[in-house]
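Quality-control log, excerpt.
Job 1 of 2 completed; input and output follow.
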Amino acid sequence: MSSILKKISACLAVMFCMHGVASAQADSINIVSTAVPFLRISPDARAGGMGDLAIATSPDANAPFWNLAKVPFAKKKSAIALNYTPWLKDLGLTDVYLASLAAYHQLDEQQAISTSIRFFSLGNIQLTDYSGNILNTVKPSEFSIDAGYSRILNEKLSIGVALRYINSRLVVGDVGTGVVYKAGNAVAGDVSLFYHGVNEEGEGLNWGITLSNLGSKVGYTNDSRNKDFIPANLGLGVTYTKAINEMNKITFGLDINKLLVPTAPQATGNYSVDSARLVDYRSTSVVSSWMKSFSDGSNQLKSLQASLGAEYAYNNQFFVRAGYFYENKNRGNRKFFSVGAGFSIDQMQVNFSYLVPSGSGVTRNPLSNTLRFGIVFNLNGSNE
């Protein structure tokens, strides 16, 4: 019975997007909830070891997940990255995971194409009614796939665009509640900019700007009025690499992210007023929601997420990483340290990261002990 409850809890963490607006109204914390939140889970082990720092780090095969504009500056003409993350392991779950694949190919010295795929599985979940009677067993999952194009504008600046298809299959059909559910679908796009200021000695400043998941809402029923926003996001990142000598380099960086989704209206206790405000919130257009996320009456500083990280490289073969992720307590309260390492063998790089346990009892971070594994295969020689 306990294992079933744990799986239901994990499912609710994702399905919260379907009912999060109503629950947020009754919660003074007022967390911004969206559909398909798996799109904001760090998919690769390198970034995971630096507190999810990735917008302006040196380009590699995982760039399509973070900042597609980095790809034309990658040292290898082609590369493929595979990553695997067991999710919520600290809750005792064994069949919940995120798997991802990313790849790029440089067409010439100026332009490149890329793709990435994410698959999020929530394992087997048993649904019950309010009396505890078994209704059905489901195996919810979500995935996204995208294709991108990036191009160098001048010797230091590049731009990237991507188009993404998103599918969220949480519950399908009538599970005994009287409501017929269907898979949610959405189309979204990314636009990114990257400034490559690292010199030939491997020292210098990089920065990047990303707009990701700009797309349609997701609905899980035939009711067109009952749709949720996807996690559109604005990201700003900067890194500085110091070449200690020819063999040793160290990089420091900071990413700032903000969801372009407005907070749900706070509950007043008046049913008619709250219902009207909720209808107005749900009827907000996608483009209007991006603008409203800056003027929804909430403290904008509290809506920012920060990733602070560092990477030490020895001879570009051995890597040690560390980072810290911060989110305001009123917006989710995710705060954690992470560490990671990697090594290169011929044309292959292996990375892993570990999320350091924090808290205890009811305050323990459910992401504690999260491990990420990743492999990057560099193909077709060097572009230097």
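Job 2 of 2 completed; input and output follow.
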Amino acid sequence: MSLEACKELVRAGDPDRYEVTVLAPENVQKVLWPLYAFNVEVTRAPWVTQEPMIAEIRLQWWRDALSEIREGKQVRSHAVTVPLAEILDPEGAMVLDKLVEARAWDIYADAFPNRESFDAYIDATYGNLIWTAARLIAPEAEEKIIRKFAYGCGIAAMLRATARLKSMGRSPLFDDNVTAFHKLARHGFFNMNYAIRARKSLPKSLEPLLMSGWNAFPTFISVRHNAQRIYEHGFTQSEFSRRYRILKLSLFGWWR
């Protein structure tokens, strides 16, 4: 029941966030490790079984844990729930509950019926996680900027995962063709760019959180130049390129 256990879960399940979070100050890590570990557990819950009912039970378990935190009850014993309860307030528990609820989409193979439902999913899964982290680290942070940033991160992640999800019989996009795929990358880029232009108004303490989006722009640029290939075969990135980007962030900060 420790931060170290959360850290190990993130290292194994979310290496992109792990690589930059280890660079964060200790007080920020105390917030991010439990939140990211929670996200790892919730994100993989629909995928560890092919039985929809079991997957729904797994997600409900996390909703019940969040309800205990929200109501100030003793939280159930788990490597993530205990550290999470130490940093999460009732508002945060309510926001994260919407994240868990949205992850139910991952259980089934249904396509998003329209752009609005797709955007709502991205905002619930990425926006709610990153906004909760930002609010706990810096309560004065502006929500609009953070959610624009989170939306860009979510779009980039969906673009990287599209080919894999399609190979598994899933329908990750609301408009399933390469032209829409390219347009989605452009839309994600514009949202991320908005956050970059507004970054000076954000507290400096949020730098480690914002660094979690380090892989978004490489994704958008790759799709711009190779949309057909990435749409059909997925996103690839050399280990050298990955390490160089993280090193640059560690030396110069967020997108400098």
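Post-run check on job 2. The two ends are 37 Å apart (CA to CA).
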